[in-house]
Amino acid sequence: MSANRWLATGNFFATYKEEQRIFLTHLDRAVFVLFIAVLFTWPIFFELSNKYMLVINNILIAMVAIIGLNLVTGFAGLISIGHAAFVGVGAYTLASICQVIGYDHVAVTHAWPAMILLCGIVGAAFGAFAGLPALRLKHLYLAIATLSFQMIFEWVIHHTSFFNQGQTIFVGRVYWFTGQVGRSEHYFFWYYVCLVTLVLLGLSVRNLLRSRYGRCLVAVRDNDRAADAMGMSPGFTKVYAFGLAGFLAGIAGGLHAYMYRGVGIESFTLHQSIQYLAMAIVGGLGTLNGSFWGPAAIKLLDLQVENLAELAGKVLTSHLSLATALRPLTFGLVIVLFLMFEPRGIANWWRIVKSYFKLWPFRY
Questions:
Q1: pLDDT in tens, 24-61
Q2: Residue ranges, the chain, pLDDT below 50
Q3: Which residues have CB under 8 Å from 48's CB, separation 6+?
Q4: Taking each helix axis from N to C terminus, what angle separates 26-45 and 186-210, rounded to the nearest 10 degrees?
Q5: Residue 183 falls within a domain, yes or no?
Q6: What is the pTM of this model?
Q7: What DSSP assignment string belongs to 260-272?
Q8: How many independent structural domains does the chain possess?
């Protein structure tokens, strides 16, 4: 396929470099640039309340975390049930710094990009450490090992006075070129920070998957013995998969701490780990775009269930807690339905739509 064509007419690649391009056609690149431009400009024309901006920011932060979970579970085939603990490690890294030097220290309020990067580095270290059992364990046994890391993390936070025994640890407001980010523009500011972080990390992971290190993840997932016979190192691949997942989770934890201006253990429990895993399943394991579809679908579903519960609460009697019943019901029902009828997730729907428009209007 010639590089100057706008529409794909077939797989006419002359070199491996052409086949590994991120954007196969100019049309793909133009659509991506237009989509990113819309994401950056829509807050200028549409004003949303802080409630809905908070939901959008939570979706973006969850997308960053799910990219890491998809790397370790979807691409490397290693089940992780303690992903919320990795996110919590990143958040409590920032909380620990605030405990030592103060939440209004210049390092926290002015050097916040470096602090977020540090959260990712610490998360990568803990992720690689938690991935060491993957050298010997597989499948259910590895899942139990990651679950134990989640339990240990929660126990340490709850029983350590340095971490305020799970109570909220405050984080100061950050500064930008125009000064301190105030209350009115807080969520809009962090929307752009989360969006830029997501785009950069998404492109970085996309490039990683095109490299030999990304292909090693898939090879180890399919057959680690065959990958070992071909000269790959399954042990190293599994550990660095957990390390990458921990890095992305740590970044998400740092963003979470800054956006909420505080850190509490209730955001990093086992329930949240299960929710992260559900997002990856609903979005589509082993697909990068599934890391974007899953969090958006689960978070928006949760918001609609909350709105429905509030509406029904005005009609039903007060002793019927509909919100408490609807949330776990819809959450479990969605997971079961996707596992039964669409195990490849929403990403498979996106693949079908793209295939249709690639062939349209020609039926052949």
A1: 777 778 888 999 999 999 988 888 888 889 999 999 99
A2: 1-4
A3: 56
A4: 170
A5: yes
A6: 0.90
A7: HTEE-GGGSSHHH
A8: 1
